Model the fold of this input.
Amino acid sequence: MNSINLINGNIITLNEKLPRINSLSIDNGKISLINNINKKFDTIDLKGSTVIPGFIDSHFHLKNFGKRLNLLDLKNIKSSEEIINLVKKCAKNKNSDEWILGFGWDQNLWSDKLFPLANNLNNLNINQPVYLTRIDGHAAWVNSSAIQKTHKTVHQLDEIDGGQVINDCILIDNAMNPFKSFLPDESIDNVKDWILLAANKAVQMGITTVHDAWQDRTIVNAIKELISEDKFPIRCYGMLAGNDRSLLNDFFKNGHYKDEYLTIRSVKAFIDGALGSRGAALHEPYCDDANNCGLILISKDEFRELAELCYKNNYQLNTHAIGDRGNTYVLDHYAAVVGKNNDRRWRIEHAQMVNDDDMMKFKQFNILPSMQPSHCTSDMHWLPERLGEQRLKLISRWQSFINLGIKIPGGSDCPIETGNPLFEFFAAVTRQNHSLLPENGFQPQEKIHSQNALNMFTKWGAYGSFNEYNQGQIELGYNGDLTVMSDDILSARPKNILGVDILYTIVNGKIVYKK
Ligand SMILES: [Zn+2]
Done:
């Protein structure tokens, strides 16, 4: 079952001794023969298609992605009519009392920029209750069937402290509370469903391993159950929720958790917010908000204590830091705890804005920047206004890190971005949007070579999870985790990368996706 041969392939090994091979054999989940096959196993004729060591996404959120996949996706929709049509279509596939849930609408994108009226949904003549959350999570657009479910009148909802109802259909803040009991809760069964949905979507995109960047107790248990039921298709490197001390203590007591599909030996923390909401901590104020430098979310004492606890228990600490001040803060704390010449590989998640002095600290203290190429190309349109021209060179400094010999684990932060590793690869080599703009790329000095972009999503992700001797290369004894693609992304013209097809995804010698 976990044994297979691949022949007639353009197989990129990422192994210097033998960079390209044409056939291999996987025996019991491990690569067992190179340029040779075992006649006893089934054989796939690749007919010249390209194989790489399976994609590793080093910053992913399985539960959030799956939860989002279960909702109507209303992000970036430019009119209320389009949303109403989606609801109408969705209603045809649901029972009459099943909720229709959606996320991501923003009336600022519509031509009139006005909140919709109650009749817009009510005139659809559907029985199902409809509940559509606004992009910021602070408002929901509902129909009258949804309101009836709460046994409250619009007037009563409007009277709730800290709440308001606009146009008899838009619930603001606390007015949403009576609906919460009808929405899917984070029970282990729901979390399992979401994670399975997400993992199956990930393998369609060619992903064989994710680093799951926030695991609470329910998520850990859900994944363990899915593994024991033989349903979990990918490998997962979990980062424990840094705010749950009892969860951390339970793991610290038992050392590293290691299973074929799930490894836990790291902790996730947050130091600041994001540039989009001006929450990232900056040394100098935002250009479009002169009194605001963003926020540091954890006190020095609290962060120092968490870092020392992780160090003592030999757990890796992976901290979200985006602004230049956020990065300085984390680097200085890390440096004080891990010292020079360490092999703890502590990570900064995002490391999106880093000044020159701090670049050297990554090198000196062996700290890894875990970065998401699409964040750069998603944010580049409004960054000049927010940060000013002078600071743009501090953004997403991939080539500068590589020049220092630093390995960058690459990720997507899905569902913030789509999760498609080919989109991440494209952003890394072009620093352009999908319309190939700007012409030379944003801050083009930080574009990277395709070989390094591939390293980010294979080898360097493996290194960032202490697993470089098992994954990230095609080599005897390594995991039989492979992604098979229609084209060679190392030599493809950048504009063709976006159209490459994933043909097979193989994890532990098993075909988990076939086009
Ligand atoms: Zn994240």
In short: The first helix runs from residue 62 to 69.
